[in-house]
Specification:
heterodimer; A: mainly alpha; 1 helix; 0% strand; rod-shaped; B: mainly alpha
């Protein structure tokens, strides 16, 4: 049972690290994407200019 | 709740509503914009949308209940989620091929591969299965809010159901997919902060050592070792990996995001990133469920007389969170609920409208948009009716997985073989959707008769093994029936090139 407890402690640690690490990156960079999408839709909702892949 | 909590939660709801009206309504008028945001979604926005769309309040509640009822061994679910979704991100399993055909809903692929008739039939069955899965959301979410607000009476739960539904319908009808992207992004931020604070206060008040001790007292070895439990083990792991390999590419609310990305490379990366975080999506609520178990095992006097395990999570948060943080968490959970309602209302109405209602009534662009909105309202009414009158069996997570299997087993077999096997035909597809839907339902309806069968058969017809059997039987059905019926049901070849016609798309679709 002790082995499993250490396994779950490791799992919890890694999960939180990735979960909240990704959250910080996505939180910051997602805002740029959102702004970009609104500009694109407001500019021309029907025939918007094609956008280059990033 | 303290008045500070009411101010925080209330301000959040008002601010979100105003932002939706001011910023999002503009620029959305066409059916395609309404459904896939003109394919203008970027990578980071996509990751936020996948994580928050699939981390609704219902998921958090259901997983916390799993932790409360199973202890640490249920943390294995987070690992299964991560393996399944990361696999899709690494390989592009199914979603890459589907994206090339520029479809908006899965049954549109059915039309290309199995004909117009099967598109309508498949769309109807998959749409109804999805709505059935969605059925308990409103009830569970209302239980959360009623209990954390300290007013868990049945009549209050009903009033909260009305309020949540009214707001969810208003948000969804405002702007479709764009509103999903916007609300999901905001929800993502608020939810992350809320969950982090809930974990800190939850573990501080429950105590790590108490959590381990109570898990050992209550469940013994099975509380830590998933292989020591009769109800878990390999079937539990394989079934959940299988379901979460299928969810990102075929479950319409999740697949809609994969079909919305401007480039399939962005889509694969999006699933890879979100797949890695899916371990946390499972771990965080399950850990909070274990903390609730530990806390209430030492404070049993705080539980109401008619306590049910689904109430443990909100009651625990009500007890341990300080003023201010509780308001933030209510706002976070409100956001979690709204983003899921947005995604699900839009996804299931789209499946039914695009594939059944609009083709049958021969509706044009404007009529189709109106029909989509009427369907959203009808699905909302169903949620209310189902929430008021239906009592789900066992745990809500099992209900979710079972109703999900009705959709996923048939959809996986028909889409997978449709994409990768030239002999798959309409006869095989019809049989598969029927068997895929009937098997999980029959395994529940006839569970008492199943147990009278010989052990080696009954073994595979209930619990997690039934989910695996459902997938295998659906796969075998399409292969066997397609081979038998090759003479009178000719397979339709898939178009070899992407269609050039791409109305409403804002960006070109990159070839892979």
């Amino acid at each position: 049972m002790n082995g499993w407890i250490y396994f779950w402690i490791g799992t919890i640690f890694v999960s939180y690290l990735i979960f909240f690490g990704v959250a910080i990156v996505v939180g910051i960079k997602g805002w740029t994407d959102l702004h970009h999408l609104f500009v694109l839709l407001r500019k021309n909702p029907v025939q918007g200019e094609p956008e280059k892949d990033q | 709740m303290h008045w500070i909590d009411w101010v925080i939660a209330g301000s959040y709801v008002v601010a979100l509503t105003i932002a939706m009206i001011v910023f999002v309504r503009k620029g959305v008028g066409r059916m395609r914009d309404f459904l896939v945001a003109g394919r203008g979604m970027g990578f980071y926005l996509g990751v936020a949308a996948v994580i928050s769309g699939e981390t609704g309040l219902i998921t958090i509640m259901a997983l916390a209940q799993e932790g409360y009822e199973g202890g640490f061994s249920k943390l294995m679910l987070g690992i299964c989620f991560a393996i399944g979704v990361t696999f899709v991100g690494l390989t592009g399993f199914i979603i890459v091929r589907l994206r090339q055909y520029e479809i908006m809903t899965i049954p549109e692929f059915f039309k290309m591969r199995y004909g117009e008739g099967f598109r309508r039939f498949g769309g109807l069955v998959l749409g109804l299965a999805g709505v059935l899965n969605f059925g308990v959301f409103l009830y569970i979410d209302s239980i959360f809010f009623a209990n954390i607000l300290g007013v868990g009476r049945p009549e209050v739960v009903k009033v909260i159901m009305f309020i949540i539904l009214a707001l969810a319908l208003a948000y969804t009808l405002l702007a479709g997919m764009v509103s999903i992207l916007f609300v999901n992004y905001i929800q993502f931020l608020v939810l992350m902060v809320g969950l982090l604070l809930a974990t800190i206060f939850g573990i501080y008040h429950a105590g790590w050592n108490t959590m381990v001790e109570v898990s050992a007292e209550r469940f013994g070895e099975a509380g830590f070792n998933p292989f020591a439990s009769d109800t878990l083990g390999w079937p539990f792991i394989i079934a959940n990996i299988l379901v979460f390999m299928t969810v990102p590419c075929l479950w319409q609310p999740a697949a809609a995001l994969g079909l919305s990305v401007r480039d399939i490379r962005v889509g694969k990366r999006m699933y890879l990133w979100s797949g890695l975080t899916f371990m946390g999506r499972g771990t965080v609520p399950i850990l909070l469920g274990i903390a609730a178990l530990a806390y209430f095992s030492r404070h049993e006097n705080l539980l109401p007389a008619d306590f049910k395990s689904i109430q443990a999570f909100p009651l625990f948060l009500k007890e341990v969170l300080p003023p201010g943080v509780k308001g933030l968490l209510v706002a976070a959970m409100f956001a979690a609920a709204m983003s899921t309602y947005n995604a699900y209302l839009l996804a299931w109405s789209a499946i039914l409208n695009q594939n059944v209602v609009s083709p049958t009534l021969r509706l044009k662009e404007k009529g189709s948009l109106l029909a989509n909105r009427i369907l959203i309202i009808l699905i909302g009414c169903f949620l209310l009716w189902w929430g008021l009158f239906y009592t789900p069996p066992a745990t809500f997570f099992q209900y979710q997985q079972l109703t999900g299997a009705i959709y996923l087993s048939g959809a996986l077999a028909t889409v997978f073989f449709g994409l990768y096997w030239s002999k798959a035909n309409a006869a095989g597809a019809y049989a598969t959707i029927i068997v895929g839907a009937a098997f999980p339902v029959a395994s529940v309806l006839f569970s008492s008769q199943v147990q009278k069968l010989p052990e080696y058969i009954a073994h595979w017809l209930y619990g997690w093994r039934a989910v695996i059997s459902g997938f295998i039987i659906a796969m075998l059905t399409i292969v066997v029936v397609s081979l038998i019926s090759q003479r009178w049901s000719r397979p339709l070849p898939l178009p070899s090139r992407q269609p050039r016609y791409n109305p409403g798309a804002l960006t070109p679709i990159s070839r892979t």
